[in-house]
Write the C-alpha cells for this entry.
Amino acid sequence: MTTKPPGIRAPGQGRTVRWSRYLPFLDWLLHYHSQDLVGDLMAGVIVAIMLAPQGMAYALLAGLPAQVGLYASIFPLVLYALLGTSRVLAVGPVAMVSLLVATGVGRLAQPNTPEYLILALALALLVGIIQTMMGLVRLGFLVNFLSHAVISGFTSAAALVIGVSQLKHLLGIKIPRTESFFELLYAIAQQLSATNLVTLGIGLSGITILFYFNQRLGRLLRRQEVASSLIVPITRSGPLLIVLGSTLLVWGLGLAQTADVKIVGEIPAGLPPVTLPVFNWTLWRQLMPTALVISFVGFMESIAVAKSLASKRRQKIDANQELIGLGVANLGAAFTGGYPVTGGFSRSVVNFTAGANTGLASIITALLIALTGIFLTPLFYFLPQAALASIIIVAVSSLVDVATLKHLWRYNKTDAASFLVTFFAVLAVGIEMGIVVGIVTALVFYLWRTSRPHIAVVGRVGDSEHFRNVLRHQVETYPHVMAIRMDESLYFANAKYLEDYILGAVADHPDVSRLVIICSAINSIDASALETLESLIDELKDSGVTLYLAEVKGPIMDRLRKVGFVKKLGENRIFLSTHQAMLAISGQ
C-alpha cells in the first residue's frame, strides 16, 4: 500500500479546496461521515422544536404576523448552511433584530399592515446587500470597532426594552406605541388597573415553566440518571409545551370569548410565498440607518457565538465568509416573505449541545419548519399572545449582563463607563441612536486613554540585560543618562504629551546629558508624531542633551530611513537593544 508524501494532494483535491473556500458546504458534504447523521438529525429536530414557537413570537415582537417568523426560518437557514463557515450556528429570527425591525420600520408604517411587511422585506434586502458586499470586499474587520463593553451595554438595555415591551401582552392591556422606554413604563403603569388576570395567569405560568425547564429540570433528570442524550431534548421542549398547553387551555375553556384572552388567530398554511422587495431609493434611504445597525449587531452576535463554539472543536471561522453567508440568508428572507435574520445564541448552543456536526442539522430544521407551516398552522389559531410573550421574556432574560459590568468595573472603569453610557443611551434615546452613542463614547475614551500613555523611566535589573520601571523595581541607573520607555504607538493625539514629558524630565534632572527613548512598545509613528520627534532632537540639543533610540521595530525603521529621519538623528544613535544602548552611552 502506497501513501502520498505530506503536502501532495490527490488529483482534483486542490480544486475542491479552492471551491470550498467560497462554498463551505462542500467541505462537509464531500467528506460526510455516516456517524454524524444521528447528531445532525437530533440537533435538527430539537432546534426546530425551539424555533417554531420562537419564530412566531419574534415575528410578533417585530410587529409582523406570526407566519412571517416561520417563513424567515426556512430558506434563510438552508442558504446559511450552504455558505456559512460555522457548522453549528443556528440562523433565524432573534429578539434583538426583531426589536430593531420594530423600531426602524415602526417609524414609517403601522405594524401588521401590508405597508409594514413591504418595508420589512426591503429592510431584509438592504441588510442582505450590506452584509454580502462587506464580505466580498473583506470588511469583516470593521466589527472590531464595536467593543465588548458597548455590545454588552447595548444588549443588556435592549433586552430590558424587549422584556418591558412584552408586558402589554402579559397583562392583556392596550398601550400607545412609543419608542421611549420611560414613556412605555409610564403607559404600562397607567393601565395596570385594566390588567386581564386570566391573561396574566397564562403568561406567568409560561414564564415559571420555562425557567423550570431551563434551570432546574436538567439537574433533576441527571439525579434521576436519565440518559444524557435525552436530557437536552426534554429541557429544550419547554416552549413547545407552553404553546401546546396554552393553546389547548384557551380552546377548551373558550377563554378568547369568555375572558377576552388575545390569541394569534388564523395563520395561513403553506410554504413561504415568493416576494419581490420594493426597489425605492427614497425608502431605502429612510431604512438605511436601521439596516446598518442590524448588519453590524447581527453579525457581531453571530460571529461571537460561532467562534466560541468552533473553538471547542478546533474548527475555523472565516469572518468575511460569515458575512456572505448571513447576507445571502437575509436576501433569501427578503424574497421568501421573511424579515432580517441572524445567528441566535441560545439556539446555536442547543444545536451544538444536541450533537450538530454539519450544516445538515440546519437544513433538517428548515425542513421541519416547512412541514409545520404546511400542516400545523391551523393548530396555532387559539395560541394566546401571552404565551408567546412569556417565551420572549425568558429568552431575553439571560441577555441582561450584570456580571460583565461588575467585571469591567473591577478591571477597567473606562470600559465600565462605556457600558453604562451605552446602556442608558439605549433606554433614553432609543435602540439605534443608543448604539451610536456607545460607539462614539468608546472611541472618545480610547483617544483620551491613548493620548495620555504610560511612560516610565527605567533602569537595569541587577546584572541582567532587562530594564524595568524605577518606581516598581530595584534597579540601577546611570549618571547623566536617562532611559524612557513609551508604552503606546506614537500618533497625533499623544505626540505632544511625550514631548512635554521628556522636556519636563530633562528640566527636573539638570545632570542628564543623554536620553534614550525605548521604542519596544511603539508599533507605528504617524506624520504628526514624526514631526514632533524631529523638533525634539533640536529642542534637546539646545538643552545640551543628546537623543538616542533603542529597540525600534523594523517596519518603523524602514519608514524613518526613507524620510531621512535616521540621517538627521545619526545611524550611530539607534540601537537594537536597550542593553547595547546603555553600554555604548555609559562608556562614552
Notes: The chain is about 60% helix and 5% strand.
